[in-house]
Amino acid sequence: MNTAYGLAAVVVVVLAAVLIGAFGLRLSRTTSDFYVASRTVSPLWNASAIGGEYLSAASFLGIAGLILAYGADMLWLPVGWTGGYLVLLVLVSAPLRRSGAYTLPDFAEARLESMAVRRCASVLVVLIGWLYLMPQFQSAGLVLRTITGAPAWAGGVLVAVVVAVNVLSGGMRSITFVQAFQYWIKLTALALPVVFLLLAWRVDGAPAPAGETPPAFAERTTVTVAADVTVRVDAPVRVTVTGRLDGSSHDRAPLTLAPGPHTVGHGTEITFPAGASVPHAEHLPALSDRQWALPLESRDHPLYATYSLILATFLGTMGLPHVLVRFYTNPDGRAARRTTLVVLSLLGAFYLLPAIYGALGRIYTPELLMTGRTDAVVLTLPGRLVGGTAGDLLSALVTAGAFAAFLSTSSGLTVSVAGVIGQDILRGGVSSFRVATVLAVAVPLALATAARALPVADVVGLAFAVAASSFCPLLVLGIWWRRFTDAGALAGLLAGGGLACAAVLTTIIGGPIEGWAGALLAQPAAWSVPVAFLVMAVVSLLTPGRVPKGVARTMVRLHTPETLNVDRGDWRPRGA
After folding, report:
1. 117 to 408, 415, 465, 485: CA distances (angstroms)
2. Which residue in 196, 359, 378, 453 is deepest, having the highest Cβ count within 10 Å?
3. Which residues partner with 223 through β-bridges?
4. Distance between CA atoms of residues 61 and 373, nearest Å
5. More confident call, 321 vs 568
6. What is the value of pTM for the model shown?
7. For residue 352, which of 190, 176, 163 has the smallest C-alpha distance?
């Protein structure tokens, strides 16, 4: 990739975000502007903004990278992330808007009349937000390092600063304009290069992954490793090495790599002959092309992992704080439902594209399976297939889309986390919101710098599992079950959310674990979601005396259309 073009693309996206955010500052004057844009956002504008913030680094880079490595099993991610909006449309969107709340903790307190539930919900919002922000910053570092060779932390710092400036300037009203613009940037940045990639693929004879062996180098290939990695070699192969291999330094030394694991230092160059099998990074499966193309072939205990992934993505969407806060910005419940329908169309159009990048990457960029940087396949393909100035321009466009993904998703998450910190930890109001914004970006930035890098879609998938295990049952039971109590809610949040958080932390800190224990921890939704629902229901039935006194009035408010609802007062946050 041409460094100048890539940097120019990043600068254009960053400047556009700052300038559009500055325009929002002119319109943001009240607390309601900062938290929910005064509830005046139209369905199309709001749907574009939702698409902008929902299509994160996991969607733009991560899905393609996981499809490159794992194949057909990963197609459930875009299906689940889109289908989750159907559940949201049917069960949550309109009643949530009618609640008049500003944040999820606001809703929890209004429905259950309990400060304890509110505080527990606040902690979970912050944890989910930080867990979701961390891979955005890590991916920004990956992209900036790919185009300029900058340190891994530089991209995260850049995104954090721009997001903080935008949110501090105008809150929700400001980032609504930014995110709507960035959705269309992301869609264009994936769709336009795909046209040229498919043309180049057809000219090349339309090759397809096929065979009973893992990918091999089609020609003599030099692979440069950007970060330390351990790779597995399946058969002896003669290579030329410059750099550190297995603890020893080499300078253009011809070596034979024996079968087994080998440690490769950062900056090392290894040249493979044509036809050599691609060594795989230790954490990636060495799948044959046949296994890659078939479902339920890529992981241990694939049936459990697949169903757990489906449950997390379908139910986790309704528990993501940066998604739910968008429905508070609609004028009424009808507009909230219409917004959800438009979102389904926008997401469906976008998610057709990453799978194409993943499949083409399997053919043309198999070395990413060795370096472990499969998330970079979207950035690498245009230069590999098209080449020349056209390839550089397409790579710059993809880079612009990637930074738009980081900025838009990080902005929405920051507003959600800052809103909760500002209301429930600080004193409320605009000044507290601005202090909370700094805290909201500083902590995940520090974690992204210190933590080991995981595939971005994996980390986001874990955030979905936590959301599905905590806020999904809270919202569904809170909206549709009159006998729901604060004791049941608190017990379920602690049980489901706590168990899912424990599984997530074990996976991130402890690394991959073998056998059933590893499968259960890596994909906890299949057991943590039923536990949360069961605990909430059982404890609520055992504590009938704790049903909120105002439940009848609250349920009428949630389920009566605005045109008939005589109780239209909004639930105001402290300090409003």
Report:
1. 30, 21, 20, 10
2. 378
3. 270
4. 10
5. 321
6. 0.82
7. 190
